[in-house]
Amino acid sequence: MWKDKAMRLLMLSAASTSIFLVALIFIFLVKEAAPFALKPGLDALFDRQWIPVSFVQERYGILPLVTGSALVTGLSMLFTIPLSVLGAIYIAEIASPVEREILKPFIELLASIPSVVLGFFGLVVLAPLIKSLFGLGTGLSALTGALLLTLMAIPTVITLSEDAIMSVPRAYKDASRALGASDLQTIFQVIIPAALPGIIAAIMLGVGRVVGETMAVLMVTGNSALMTWSPLAPVRTMTATIAAEMGEVSFGSLHYQALFWIGLVLLAVTFLLNIIAQRVLVRYGMMK
Amino acid sequence: MIIKKIVPWLAVLLLLLQTSCDSGQKEASKGEAGSEAGSQKAISIKGSDTMVHLTSSWAEQYMGQHPDAQISVTGGGSGTGIAALLNGTTDICASSREIQGKEKELAAQKKIDLVEYAVARDGLAIIVNPANPVVDLSMEQLRKIFIGEYTNWKDMGGPALPIIVLSRESSSGTFVFFQEHVLKKADYTPKARLLAGTSALVQSVASDKGAIAYVGLAFALEAKATVKMVGVKSADDAAAVMPSDETVRAGHYPVARPLYLYTNGTSSPEAKAFVDFCLSEAGQKIVTETGYISIK
Asked: Residue B51 belongs to what domain range?
């Protein structure tokens, strides 16, 4: 009997390790970031400029970094959503088994390309392309970053959307057909609406993936902390800022604490996206 | 069935463990033997990307002369190196700028006794695209370009072409030095694109017509084929001076700076021995050979 209990305990602890780790990471972030709230106070984070190294006045406003991340993410979703949703519909509903066997491994392959490699590709191939396409001085811009992120988000969104579409009960399709609907009508008026919560959740998780991506955007977005909504302007994202500056700061300095605040904001955003995705799925009965 | 599948994997795992233990033991025993012979412990040098060439050449030569010595060299930027020295994660910090007041305070708090050695000099070359007809710029023009007051090359008598300001990341000592001495402590224009590393700067300048950037003289000379150096005038009515060994050593070229090594004074005799080597005649000869300018 005690063996069963011991085994149960062992498995329980293995299963809850990740909860423990998430809590630990969160506590650590808060602990390192907290002193900033006392001095110079949280309103310093709402400055419109991020100038961590200055002889005049250091400024730790994370707004330009938030808008930078938002711009790159938004743009990449503009490309990701149509591409992935249409792709998922094709794979789930239209493709022959042979086509599916060819398409799926390649999509998975795309997911497994290391982001540094993609970043390198962006720097050498995509940036010059964008430069000559729009007649810019340099191709290091938000758009270039967004296109790279699209490549990274597509596998996530396609795979999850496809699952959602596949899980629409066969009976819906048969009923629609029996009523005389064409294939297209069935797909767009029956299957997609039924799979929509799953597709939305897939998009949310894709956004989470894109917001947290670091290396590729660090390499191609130009990293200027500008508050802008122009796709062709250089932007500095939250992740790139942490990656580029964490190495330089001395522990415990204001700059260090400000970087931890960025980390907290990022964590909060991805956490929120995950929760929303889960909620949508549960609400519409696609996940128990 | 399952057991049959697992067994080979287990065997592989065991084998791996075995070999890693073996090598661990070997290293350990080597270390012991070394310490009996009165050998040196490993030293780490961290900091300035500008100086990586130099410090690694020094380290190589030094290890050649002292077979027991183990020196590891990493870059990351002067700020990174100084932070590492203050956090106690490196023995020697290479820095292309002086340690600042705030960092000194932190060092005092952490009871670190900073010792500074000026070990070489370096000129900062201002590079532009070869297609750019501008041949010289004054310090004042440079300042206005990098703080964003001038945004078009026609302000400098060049073509009507927007200026693309490129800079190193803020962890770079070159970033801070340039800010202090050329920008007169003003902030960079927020539009400046911050690139990670000198080679990214050179590559962007080579491909973007309106680009301007600053890089260490050694790097600019190496990339002579793809980028153009411009002369710098210390005042608007002064003659333009091109960066070179002679002009930097003679103090004629205005954008030049000393390069430093910092140690924690109380830490290790090994680090001191290495710094002494860098300052010796042999060490200074390497400075010249690697494209920097010796202090003597």
From this structure: 44-121+257-289
> The pTM is what?
0.77
Contact A137 B164 (CB under 8 A): yes
Whether A194 maps to a domain, the answer reads: yes
* String of DSSP letters for B57-70: HHHHHHHHH-TT--
Q: Which residues are CB-neighbours of B53 under 8 A, at least 6 positions away?
A: B218, B290, B291, B292
Q: CA-to-CA distance for A38 and A34, rounded, in angstroms?
A: 7
ipTM of the assembly? 0.75
Chain A environment of B108 (Cβ under 8 Å): none
Which of B83, B179, B200 is the closest to A55 by Cβ? B179
Same domain, A153 and A258: yes
Cis bond before residue A64 (omega within 30° of 0): no
- Of all residues in chain B, the one with the smallest CA distance to A226 is B190
Contacts of A54 in chain B (CB under 8 A): 179, 187
- Residue A135: its chain B contacts at CB < 8 A? none
CATH number, domain at A128? 1.10.3720.10
pLDDT tens for each residue of A146-193: 999 999 999 999 999 999 999 899 899 999 999 999 988 999 999 999
A250/B82 touch (CB, cutoff 8 Å), yes or no: yes
DSSP, collapsed to helix, strand or coil, labels residue B143 as helix
Q: Which long-range CB contacts under 8 A does A132-138 form with residues at least 24 apart?
A: A134/A232, A136/A232, A137/B161, A137/B162, A137/B164, A137/B208, A137/B209, A137/B210, A137/B211, A138/A222, A138/B164, A138/B193, A138/B204, A138/B207, A138/B208, A138/B211
Question: Which phi and psi (to 5°) does residue A96 adopt?
Answer: -75, 160
The identity of residue B181, as a single letter, is H
Q: Are residues B111 and B215 in the same domain?
A: no
